[in-house]
Amino acid sequence: MNAYPAAAPTVHKNPIANFPLEIPVEFDELVLNTSRMEEMALELHVEIHKHGLGQQAIGTEPPSTSSSAKTSKKKKNSDLKYDIFGWIMLAVGIVAWVGFAKSHVPPPPPR
């Protein structure tokens, strides 16, 4: 005699049949608000590029004047300092890495 009762045959129902046909109002409002925000973002993007602010953000400089020339010279000096400091940091890191690797050589395999 079997200790387990006989299993009823499995009936697969259509999962879409239980899906509500009406979409909740909150979801509808959310979709509408999202599409409005997308349109506003697109309009803002177009306005930014109309005024030329988009070009300055990606790196092109405005026409140079005497004050902007001084600023760019200071910036170049500052950039050079950061470049040199970065290369020094990289060299120190590589030296430390190689030194650490040499100090922890794996033992030779047993014979």
UniProtKB/TrEMBL annotation:
It comes from the Eukaryota. Signal peptide: none annotated. The keyword Amino-acid biosynthesis does not apply. It is a single-pass membrane protein. Keywords: Membrane, Mitochondrion, Mitochondrion outer membrane, Protein transport, Transmembrane, Transmembrane helix, Transport. It is found in: Mitochondrion outer membrane. This is Uncharacterized protein. It comes from Nyssa sinensis.
